[in-house]
Amino acid sequence: MTQKIMHAGDGIHASYGEAFAAFAGSLPAAEHAARAAAFDEFIQHGFPDDAIERWHYTNLSTLPKQAVRLAAAAALDTAPWQLGDCDEFIWINGEPQGAATDAAGLPAPDAHAGLAGLHRAFARPGLQLALGAGEQRERPVHALTISTAAEAGEMTHLAHRISLARGAKVTVILQNVGTDGAARFITQSLAADLADGAQLTLIRLQDESRATTQWLQTDVNVGRDARFELINVDFGGKLIRNDWRVKLLAPGAQTELAGLFGSDARAHLDNQYEIDHVAAHGTSRQFFRGLGFGNSKTVLNGRVVVQRGAQKTDSEQSIANLMLAKGAEIDAKPELEIYADDVKCAHGATCGQLDDTAVFYLRTRGVPEATARALLTYSFANDVIARIAHAGLRERIARRITAALGAELDLDALSFEDETVDATGDAL
Amino acid sequence: MAANPSEIEALVQNRKYEAGFITDIESESVPPGLSEDVIRLISAKKQEPEWLLEFRLKAYRRWLTMDEPRWAHVQYPKLDYQAISYYSVPKSMANAPKSLDEVDPKLLETYNKLGIPLKEQEMLAGVVPDKPQVAVDVVFDSVSVGTTFKKKLAEAGVIFCSISEAVREYPELVRKYLGTVVPFADNFYATLNSAVFTDGSFVFVPKGTRCPMELSTYFRINERNTGQFERTLIICEDDAYVSYLEGCTAPQRDENQLHAAVVELVALDRAEIKYSTVQNWYPGDEQGRGGIYNFVTKRGDCRGRASKISWTQVETGSAVTWKYPSCILRGDDSVGEFYSVALTHHHQQADTGTKMIHLGRNTKSTIVSKGISAGKGQQAYRGLVRVGEKAEGARNHTQCDSLLIGSQCGAHTFPYTEIRNPSAIVEHEATTSKISEDQLFYCRSRGIGEEDAVSMIVNGFCKDVFKELPMEFAVEAQKLLQVSLEGAVG
């Protein structure tokens, strides 16, 4: 056993060990060896600390401060979160509501060896979605994970998998919510494979409880002329780290990533986006909007890699941050790593405030200052929200933001039933 | 005039053929290796006071506990710090190189094309007195051997000498400022430098003085297997101004050489320091053999109100460059600037950029970085803009462009921004592109050869930076780029 374990304290790791022993008992014998190997990886590497460049702003080594146990099943009325016009899949504390599905193998995230080991050791199957060739679903798939108070335990680990065959098309809404203030530790992974011409729109809304530590890694492989679109909205949690990896593996692959983040609490949000242009003629777009509320620390790393031979790559990235309060911190890094010469790559990052002249203009029209500021902030965030095709979800996010802004906005005056939007959001 | 003009003339004469040879001077080197004894020996040879020896030993003891940084986007074999000789002093200056036949003709050709970058020879001899004068402090290996224009500078009250001399003549000044901008334990290479630095330049511009001429230093790495560890300290008191030029060349050799310099700038109230560099260390051959490892720590401290520090660099040499000239904007209303052109060709690698640390109110910084990558060169811009909690009204604009020439090269951008004050306005923009076929075709259809066309386009790409350079350097820099890019196209 390594020094890291000693450093973290034997008692803590003994507690992970006990949790693993209890969990392993519930697993089929065929999985035991792989799970145990994964757990050993975790023991060997521990949690990432800020000495690792990719974890420079997010230090998880202070995490194991208390004994851990897997969260127990709990019952809860899930109606408030259901969207209605979607195919619903729900997990409460990692326990599927309804029929459980089998996973096709263990997940393989790689953002950090120790963390990945922990996830592999404990992961239970989450959404397992496979679409056949040409299968196009009009109804979005809603994967809802809820963490709530249980009798004991605070860890859940879920692994999602989406596989789209040639020409398949679907919208998946992944929503992570928490109900109370209990300290929790959640890891999730999502692996998606898009075969030639497939289209996946992933909308992810994170609104975990104020004491939650969550790590999510998403890996998407995009095939020839396939398209992956992401809209990620981060509001909740205490310490949130998301690793997004998109690989454009064949010519004509496209991806468009959009993100909105802002916590109104003393929280730490870290989003690491990476687009890897492996093949030529790939297109990528990134569009991020950040809100710096009081005492929150938001980290955004947008990385674009253009591999040797990925000629004619077209990549753009735009990051804009709004600093709203003293005490907030925003750390943004738009990275480019380019190994091919015939490419078009541009990125821009800004950090600033609301335009005083715009505020003044609204005030001259009789809008109180607080409302004017809230309105302008909302419109800034709306650049991302408007990309969401699902009207019901869009409205929920809008209400969540206005609540955070603390000013009364007449949302009913804002139309959410936007007739210009089709199911894919293409018209936006 | 200088103490011995003929010596300096001889030295300057050497520059005419540029530096592709090892000057055969009887030199007094200590055997390779580093220990407390070596540091005591260096200190004793330089007749340093006790406090400086303590500074060196403190740094050395800290250095032993540090690890070499590996986060930069560069690759090179692990260095053996015990194989480097940490001290070498030329004994006789009259003993200049014997024959040009020893020079690699290829290098000679290159340098002939470059011409003499500055007309320092005439200036030293006073042939062209009506032109702007440049004072040169030549660092020949590790000990500064000639300083000119001392008298004229002395009349203005400006101190410009080697740092060893400054330690002897102005110990209280050196002691007051040395290590206050780059602390002895700052980073691996700076700490090594603090332990073993041999020489460098010292500039002190007193209150209200505008330095009457541009100050210039040439560095040469000359003795086989001696890393050069310069230490430069520039202090501008209230309302003072100085423009400092640094240029370097190095002889060809096969082993990799370490160059770990530290430059510290201190600007007090309303002072302004302009620091310009043309760096052309030996970059290794076309297969990537040899070349200098340039691991430099440069930092300026805008300590006073409304002070200004401006870095301008043209980086075309070195096998591996690891360099981030930075500004600490401590005084209210202070200004930091960074203008950079970096070129990597063949197997060169560069990880360079800047840090702008905004601490005072209404501080402003501008970053313009132009990276050119050709052949198998790898080029990274790494920059940090940090706005502290108390830095009300901080403003930054960063422009960061890369030009790619050839399908084997790489251009990378790692711009860190850390904003902790809601009134900050920070902007970063970056583009990456290649020389377009249209531009080339247009030039060629006007009868301009392909290489000239590329050079013209590249010069246009770099214009924003070249216009910040002093006139003579700007001319030199353009030629340097042209020569460095030869063979990159076609």
How would you summarize the topology of this molecule?
The complex is a heterodimer of chains A (428) and B (490).
Chain A: H1 3-8, H2 10-24, H3 32-45, E1 87-92, E2 95-97, H4 113-122, E3 124-131, E4 141-147, E5 155-164, E6 169-178, E7 184-194, E8 199-207, E9 212-222, E10 227-234, E11 239-248, E12 254-261, E13 268-277, E14 283-292, E15 297-306, E16 314-323, E17 329-338, E18 344-352, H5 356-364, H6 369-385, H7 391-405
Parallel strand pairs in A: 1-4, 3-5, 4-6, 5-7, 6-8, 7-9, 8-10, 9-11, 10-12, 11-13, 12-14, 13-15, 14-16, 15-17, 16-18
Antiparallel strand pairs in A: 1-2
Chain B: H1 5-16, E1 27-29, H2 36-45, H3 50-64, E2 88-90, H4 105-114, H5 120-125, E3 134-140, E4 143-147, H6 150-156, E5 159-162, H7 163-169, H8 171-177, H9 188-196, E6 201-205, E7 214-220, E8 231-236, E9 241-249, E10 257-259, E11 262-267, E12 272-280, E13 292-302, E14 308-315, E15 320-323, E16 326-329, E17 335-344, E18 349-352, E19 355-358, E20 364-374, E21 378-387, E22 395-405, E23 410-419, E24 425-434, H10 437-445, H11 450-461, H12 463-466, H13 471-484
Parallel strand pairs in B: 3-7, 6-8, 7-9, 8-11, 9-12, 10-13, 11-13, 12-14, 13-15, 13-16, 14-17, 15-18, 16-19, 17-20, 18-21, 19-21, 20-22, 21-23, 22-24
Antiparallel strand pairs in B: 1-2, 3-4, 5-6
Helix pairs in contact in B: 2-3, 3-9, 7-8, 10-11
